[in-house]
Amino acid sequence: MENKIINLGIFGFGVVGQGLYEVLNRTKGINARIKKICIKDPNKSRPIDSSYFTTDKNEILEDPTIDVVVELINDTEAAFDIVSTALRNGKAVVSASKRMIAENLPALYELQSANKVPFLYEASSCASIPIIRNLEEYYDNDLLNAVEGICNGSTNYILTKIFEENLSFETALQQAQDLGFAETDPTLDIEGYDPKFKLVILLLHAFGTFVKPEEVYNFGIHHLNDFDIQFAKQRNCTVKLIAQCRRQNGSVFAYVLPHLVKEHNLLYDVYNEYNGILLESAFTDKQFFVGKGAGGTATGSAVLSDISALLYNYRYEYKKIKQNNQPNFTNDVKLKVYLRYKTPDQVDLAEFFNISEKYESPEWRYVVGTINLQKLKEAGWLKKKDVNLLVLE
Q1: Exposed e or buried b per residue across 39-58, where buried means at least 16 C-beta atoms within 10 angstroms of its C-beta
Q2: Residues 386, 369: one domain?
């Protein structure tokens, strides 16, 4: 596509779609223009001329003059249909749909390989942080040990307001929603599903390992209460929802869990809607990336970066897959955790390898101890509202 004007067909014109429109019109030197935008509701008021819009997906998918399909919708099934059809039609595709990608990674990998067209999705993982491109290009060897960090701007905004401004969970969540950082239904964010989808994508580019989302354990910040917050503050810690994948003994494990984070940790000072990602490798030790993880223009800029890369015929090479030494996925790893509960019958402390600290009061109880990640994944206790978990450093 080098030295030509790219015609874009966009699906969706919500927060990210409008962010893309804004950054595209403010950026000089990118030879791309929007030809058509497919939307669901033709009667909804929108800030640009109505001639851009259609409700017929085939006006984009079947138009031979449209070079790149940009998929930015929330419907997972419809998004996969759009992306797979576009790839079969020989069109390059850019997407920001982390759930759709995570749930269909093997099929999407095969589709782009079979049809010899690029499929880029930098915006799906950490919005403005170019983490996939770095994993693909800089860490293209097998010496990467771990990827961990904050990759959900909504929950980080909520936690920042709780710990820095003493706001209630409900007030902080409402602010995040008002600012467009969290959805009207915040379940995917606050229960840790959104960062899990991103982690599944990063696992593939970091280690070449395909993992189904349901194999990765996620537990969010939805059970956090004042007792937990006080526990963290007494230990000069904050709480961050962290997604982590790490190579260990020839395998790789991954999870999304809230952590108690100390001041020396680089993630401690990642505030508001920002994301922060730590990469750890054998030769470079740790490298730290930080950038906005939510918001229309932040995510739109990542989409635009992928569009720009297509001008230079860029595509993911999936080098880790081709090296044929991918680590197997496992949940067999020990974690040191704080477990807070209300009554003894709510939890099974026999599942712990050891318990180093125990507290009881008429209102709350907690233990600090070591437990296997697989046991946590199988345990029913964390579904109980009065039970919460934090991983300790």
Answers
A1: beeeeeebeeeeebbeeebe
A2: yes
